[in-house]
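Appendix C reproduces, verbatim, an entry submitted by the partner laboratory led by Prof. M.T., so that reviewers can inspect both the input and the predicted structure.
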Amino acid sequence: MMHETTSFPVTKGRPKVTVVGAGMVGGTVAQLLAQRDYADIVLVDIVEGMPQGKALDLLQAGPVLGYDSIVVGANGYEQAAGSDVVVLTSGITRKPGMSRDDLLRTNQSIIRSVTEQVVAVAPDAILIVVSNPLDAMCHVALAASGFPRERVIGQAGVLDSARFRSFIAAELDVSVEDVTAFVLGGHGDTMVPLSRFSTVAGVPITELLSPEKIEELETRTANGGAEIVGLLKTGSAYYAPASATAAMVDSILLDKKRIMPCSVLLQGEFGIDDVFVGVPVKLGRSGLEAILHISLTDAEREALHRSAGAVRELVETMRSFDS
């Protein structure tokens, strides 16, 4: 028998964020948002007892850390009704012996089902997709929701840029606070780190590091997730992905209008049509509010189009599953 939803009412008047998937990423997103103390959180998972237990644990941390956010856990979507933002972290990770197509087919089915259930109770929500393969799952969520592109946004470049920033800061022995970095393209090994737009206190890193060292840091950034998986052996990154997701929720719900690299559906921008790929965007209370156009070199443009092509291949593969 399913566990009852944690019996705490979500506060009227506060924004509501639903996090679907109470695993390591989803649970950490819920924790970070609860600590921000501006929204109430609904944590949803199909595993009986897990979202309820994590929600209760987070609720009891409130008196210690000084936040009043209400956190509830559920195995269904009733509590998600009226959510302002829904974060999708559901899905499985690739296991030994599993083909890429098997992973794609399974997560396509999961994200489609989850999105349909979310939309039924939260038709005005903004969706933030975290599940992998990220850009392809954005296509699934967009189609299943019927939402405009402004309300389906993939979390990719914020994480990838954070990884690049951390590597630059470590290499130059400076504070990460003074480092900015820009990573575009799909979330994976075809991402496009833009080093000439990456700076330390306004100074381009191309003036501070050799081309060889920059290439090394770019490669490490592209393989950042795989490096962590290799070290953990039985899991994948969750602190940095969750932090990146929380920063996106901040910009949306607090209407901060931050400029962040996110995966959005391009409709001619950068010469790319009908593909989700990471580009610089303005995030505000209505979701995607603008796409910033930046001039790319021929090599950068070619790399971005190649990355978009890799996403398009995944989308075509998913369409073949339905045919």
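The longest strand covers residues 273-284. Additional entries are available on request from the coordinating office.
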